Amino acid sequence: MAARKRASAKPIPPPTPERTTTQIDPPIAPPKKALIFKFCLFFSIPYFYLLYQHHEIDQDLRKSILTNAALCVAGFFLTQRMIPVASRYVSKRGLFGFDINKKGTPQGDVKVPESLGIVVGIVFLVLAILFQYFNFTSDSNWLVEYNAALASICFMILLGFVDDVLDVPWRVKLLLPSIAALPLLMAYAGHTTIIIPKPLVSYVGQEVLDLGWVYKLYMGLLAVFCTNSINIHAGLNGLEVGQTVVIASAIVIHNLMQIGASSDPEYKQAHAFSIYLVQPLLATSLALLSYNWFPSSVFVGDTYTYFAGMTMAVVGILGHYSETLLIFFLPQVLNFLLSLPQLSGYVKCPRHRLPRFNPETGLLTGTRDGTLINFYLRIVGPKSEKSLCIHLLFVQALGCCFCFMLRYFLAGWYK
Amino acid sequence: MAVRNRASAPRSPPQTLETTTTGTGPPIAPPKKALIFKFCLFFSIPYFYLLYQHYKIEQDLRRSILINAALCVAGFFLTQRMIPVASRYVSKRGLFGFDINKKGTPQGDVKVPESLGIVVGIVFLVLAILFQYFNFTADSNWLVEYNAALASICFMILLGFVDDVLDVPWRVKLLLPSIAALPLLMAYAGHTTVIIPKPLVSYVGQDVLDLGWVYKLYMGLLAVFCTNSINIHAGLNGLEVGQTVVIASAIVIHNLIQIGASSDPEYKQAHAFSIYLVQPLLATSLALLSYNWYPSSVFVGDTYTYFAGMTMAVVGILGHYSETLLIFFLPQVLNFLLSLPQLSGYVKCPRHRLPRFNPETGLLTGTPDGTLINFYLRIVGPKSEKSLCIHLLFVQALGCCFCFMLRYLLAGWYK
Q: Segment Disordered: which positions (chain B) (predicted)?
């Protein structure tokens, strides 16, 4: 809910010309490098283990993956450099918000620059475009899908930024991801068949079912779901980027495992395709997280949540593992289901469905709104914003581990 | 120079909270439909003549072109419907300007919505994406180039809109098109050879010269040139869109002639490719022109000039007729050469290089600034804004006719 971030912001006029030239907006706080460093250390363990030790991965493929990773490291530093620069321009243009969860404290009066997802999006696109030059394992079908993926993600960033600037009505917002997904749907030349889970084969009567255009409809809906579900599971400092980082890390691990464990070259290609787009997502998101983590120096805007959601939907579709992706999105699915009564209008839906902030104690208390955040707070009791966010990200990570375990146990039995 | 349109605008505060929530900006004037209708009538004569009479074009190809044209007609009406809607949102957000060439008259105080190029860009993308479904003559190489073209144009629209919103420094502005052109450069799998003009073969020593990476550099520079040259040959109501409409019409005619006259299927494919992207450009631009023509109800923004320039560079590159494209751009080249002394800093460069407007007479007088507009005014004397624009568009059309004649006369002799 990026909306909460601009609760009081929209009508505030930008500074008058005289003030702008003599008074410069204060620079944003320095990035939280330690947090990112700790994460990278932690993540590199399973990453390099899977890449080098556990599986015998093709030299060429490994080289492509590492080249991609190297580009991503450069992208991380570039994004980290550009965010403070962009913040000044964005603030100047009136794209800023006030942190509702700090209202009543001095921090609640600070103008926080919005829509910094645009920096992440642009750097991501540059990385993804340049990587084509370095990919040693491409063929013409790969190039079509890759460019269609780039076109879709680029279109989504454009529509997300237009939304952040113009504040389009919510019904249009729901439609935007399906428009952005069009290049993908057009270029998707893969199977529209699904493998029926073994236990259900007797009921369906077939092992493999061709869904045809229904599959494309599913792809379009997946894009709408991924983007909007991240958008509504939001409202705490660092939650949107944090959940993306957790899911993206899980996707990279999943891709590496599938590349290593499989012997089907097409299958490996599909997961390699996915990794080439998720690594840049992860790297640029980490750079954004270093500024967005509690206490947030910048807000991410719908630009970011739409971009992240679309990228993950794209890789899930083109990598042919969208069911696995949906399990990674379990908390988002839960949040969506909890939100349905209010979003559909069945239950009264207030402007914001955030927990209630107490400036005295600094704790958040769960309200009766139907969101995962409030539901969790009602169970565990009042928490500070930072620790609540950590808890929720831990829940996200648990969900991903659960998914890995499920795949392990059901392997062979399920498909 | 879209900057002139926002001469007094960017730092004036948007309306206060009360007026913003109760009303969006005032509605804009109705579109000038008669003008567009007259143009379409005039243009359809050579168009249908070339498509049906003069040449024997294959059924399939002709059908694809006409389906594309039908999509474009729908796109025209969609754009025309969306522009007034978008204007309200854009105005509300503070993206408006004051018409400098009406300063001193009552019209000079009207807030004109800016950056309506975003509507054109989005509708163009939707048309271009959907067309893939209808194209009967597509193969995988075509799809790669097409999707790379879409990615490039989409990226340019994104960067153009970011520029309109955030007002990036001009040095960055120059760089943006080369970044947006990257998907194209990466996907370009065509020849990097040039055919040496016959008279020069003795000097060069070869018939055909392979430029390799220099050709790609040329492609990148062409993108930078096309976008920025339209951007600086601007400042009169309807000039930016008008010049694009004239050049795009010439491109369509050129494509039809080349498709009809050639017997090489690859060559025909290249020109068909170009037509599939230029027809949507033409149609959506005409819709914008109906609002932007004198007196302008909306301004187009850098979003439009960058989008139009990039689309034409893309088709020139992928259609392999970039030298012809440059001759269509002759007035822009002239304007660029005239501007060089001031842009390079050799001669003092004022904030705006527009002609001087006299509110009493309503006429524009040429200043000593180095632009084609001023140069022309110095030659023919003071003119009203509308008639000056018509003159300049006529000069543009003359340049295109000159190009056609040149190709006709030099055919066989040149290459």
A: 1-26
Q: Where are the beta strands (DSSP E) in A117-268?
A: 193-195, 208-210
Positive or negative: CA dihedral A336, A341, A343, A344? positive
Each residue's pLDDT tens digit, B62-83: 999 999 999 999 999 999 999 9
Give Dmax (Cα) for chain B. Answer: 75
- How far apart (Å, rounded) are the C-alpha atoms in residues B80 and B38? 16
Two tokens, residue B296 = 């302008």
Instruction: Give chain A positions within 8 Å (CB) of B83.
Output: none
* Phi-psi domain of B194 (left: phi exceeds 0; alpha: psi -120 through 50; beta: other): beta
Of A149, B257, B23, residue with least CA distance to A157? A149
Count the alpha carbons within 13 Å of A291 in the hemisphere toward its beta carbon.
31
What are the backbone angles phi and psi of residue A193, rounded to the nearest 5°?
-100, 150
Q: Please tell me the distance from the alpha carbon of residue B409 to that of residue A79, in angstroms, as a whole number.
A: 53
Please give the structure tokens belonging to residue A159: 């529509």
- Which chain A residues are Cβ-neighbours of B151 within 8 angstroms? 129, 147, 150-151, 154
β pairing state of A363-365 and A193-195: unpaired
Pairwise CA distance, residues A390 & A237, whole Å? 10
Is this complex scored with an ipTM above 0.95?
no
**Prediction pTM value:** 0.90
pLDDT tens-digit profile of B275-320? 999 999 999 999 999 999 999 999 999 999 999 999 999 999 999 8
Chain B residues closer than 8 Å to A182 by CB: 126, 129-130
Q: What is the pLDDT of residue A162?
A: 95
User: Element (H or E) spanning B210, and its range?
Assistant: strand B208-210
Binary contact (A162, B122; C-beta < 8 A): yes
Residue B174: strand pairing partners: none
Q: Are B233 and B2 in contact (CB under 8 A)?
A: no
Nearest CA in chain A to B176: A122
From B360's Cα to the closest Cα of chain A, the distance in A is 30
Residues of B in contact with A158 (CB under 8 A): 121-122, 154, 157-158, 161
- Token pair in block for residue B59: 């059924």
Cα separations in angstroms, B191 against A215, B142, B209: 38, 15, 10
CA-nearest residue to B145 within chain A is A144
Gap from B180 CA to chain A (nearest CA, Å): 9
Structure token pair of residue A35? 């947090």
In DSSP terms, B210 is beta-bridged to: B193
Task: Kindly report the nearest CA distance between residue A40 and chain B, in angstroms.
Answer: 29
CB A155 within 8 A of CB B126: no
Give the residues across from B96 on adjacent strands: B113
* CB–CB contact B151 A129 (8 Å): yes
CB A130 within 8 A of CB B182: yes
CA distance B333 to B331: 5
B295: cis peptide before it, omega within 30°? yes
pLDDT per residue over A269-301, tens digit each?
899 999 999 999 999 999 999 999 989 999 999
Range of lowest pLDDT (B30-34, B93-97, B135-139): B135-139
Q: In whole angstroms, what is the distance from residue A2 CA to residue A99 CA?
A: 11
